[in-house]
């Protein structure tokens, strides 16, 4: 579904991502670990087509189509969606009304998801205005559910979220990515950024990557990589990347 080849990304004169290669098949969900400032948000914003990020080299393909130079709204039409790390608050717009505008699902289904996320009492509130960390994340998940994209990127869906809601958010992401279906029956793929890993207790992911200093320093089994990070931290990942260089 998503194929990234030799991607280098700049902001102004600064190279943020170097030679990124990433393949995510239909039905797969990958997780991206990495310390603060590694370039995780840059990567998914580049996939989305945010014009702030300049592709200095390489290509991005979505379902076989080269989207490297495609504007953001066209990528969204193709089925690429994002749940933001820190979305803005939108004063004057009720969550319910925003959902009615963006939703591609039956309203009944949206209402079921509202209930599942215990979000009924937020529907008449202004979007994200005065929401706590966990509430903002649930609001994002609800919006992405309503938009129903095929490829969903989640930027730190677990940061600033209490334990109970991490479980709720993890379960919901699983559902959004068709994880209760067999892999051949799934229509969705995902890329999830986290630096905690606790959310993986509640989610099924197929592969993990560690991004350090703008480079994917290792890829593999999510559990193994997470255990490695817990035991040794990112330093060891940086060390193995420097060896690779
Ligand atoms: P992460 O999501 O992994 O924490 P980011 O992708 O947000 O990292 O940032 C990667 C690097 O790019 C950081 O060093 C950050 O300071 C830098 N960066 C992000 N935005 C800008 C910008 N507008 N101008 C210059 N540098 C930026
Ligand atoms: Mg960060
Ligand atoms: Mg980030």
What number is the mean pLDDT?
93
Number of helices: 7
Shape call: globular
Distance between the termini: 29 Å
Q: What is the CA-based Rg, rounded?
A: 18 Å
What is the oligomeric state here? Answer: single chain
CATH A-level architecture? 3-Layer(aba) Sandwich
Across the major sheet, the strand order is 6-9-10-3-11-12
Uncertain spans:
none
Describe this protein with a few key phrases.
single chain, 245 residues, alpha/beta, Rossmann fold, four-stranded antiparallel sheet, binds adenosine-5'-diphosphate, binds magnesium ion, FeS-cluster_ATPase_SufC, ATP-binding, AAA+_ATPase
Characterise the protein shown here.
The chain has 245 residues and is α/β, with parallel strands linked by helices. The chain has a single domain, classed as 3-Layer(aba) Sandwich (Rossmann fold), CATH 3.40.50.300. It contains seven helices and twelve strands. Helix 5 packs parallel to helix 6 (163-176). The mean pLDDT is 93.
Short description:
With 245 residues, the chain is an alpha/beta fold.
Blueprint of the fold:
Layout: E1 2-11, E2 14-24, E3 29-33, H1 40-48, E4 54-62, E5 65-66, H2 72-78, E6 80-83, E7 90-94, H3 95-102, H4 107-116, E8 126-127, H5 133-147, E9 151-155, H6 163-176, E10 189-193, E11 207-212, E12 215-220, H7 222-244
This protein binds adenosine-5'-diphosphate and magnesium ion (2 copies).
One magnesium ion (MG) is lined by residues 40-41, 85, 155.
């Amino acid at each position: 579904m998503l194929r990234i080849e030799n991607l280098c990304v700049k902001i102004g004169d600064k190279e943020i991502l170097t030679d990124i290669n990433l393949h995510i098949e239909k039905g797969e969900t990958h997780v991206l670990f990495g310390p603060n400032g590694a370039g995780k948000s840059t990567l998914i914003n580049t996939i989305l087509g945010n014009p702030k990020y300049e592709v200095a080299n390489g290509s991005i393909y979505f379902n076989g189509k080269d989207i490297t130079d495609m504007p953001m709204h066209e990528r969204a039409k193709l089925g690429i969606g994002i749940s933001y790390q820190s979305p803005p608050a939108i004063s004057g717009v009720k969550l319910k009304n925003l959902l009615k505008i963006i939703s591609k699902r039956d309203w009944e289904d949206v209402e079921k998801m509202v209930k599942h996320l215990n979000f009924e009492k937020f529907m008449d509130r202004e979007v994200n205005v005065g929401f706590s960390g966990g509430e903002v994340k649930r609001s994002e998940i609800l919006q992405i559910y309503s938009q129903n994209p095929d490829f969903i990127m989640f930027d730190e869906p677990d940061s600033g979220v209490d334990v109970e809601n991490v479980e709720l958010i993890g379960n919901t992401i699983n559902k959004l990515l068709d994880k209760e279906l067999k892999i051949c029956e799934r229509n969705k793929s995902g890329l999830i950024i986290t630096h905690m890993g606790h959310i993986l207790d509640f989610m099924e992911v197929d592969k993990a990557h560690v991004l350090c200093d703008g480079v994917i320093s290792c890829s593999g089994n999510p559990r193994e990589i997470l255990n490695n990070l817990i035991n040794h931290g990112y330093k060891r990942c940086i060390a193995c990347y420097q060896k690779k260089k």
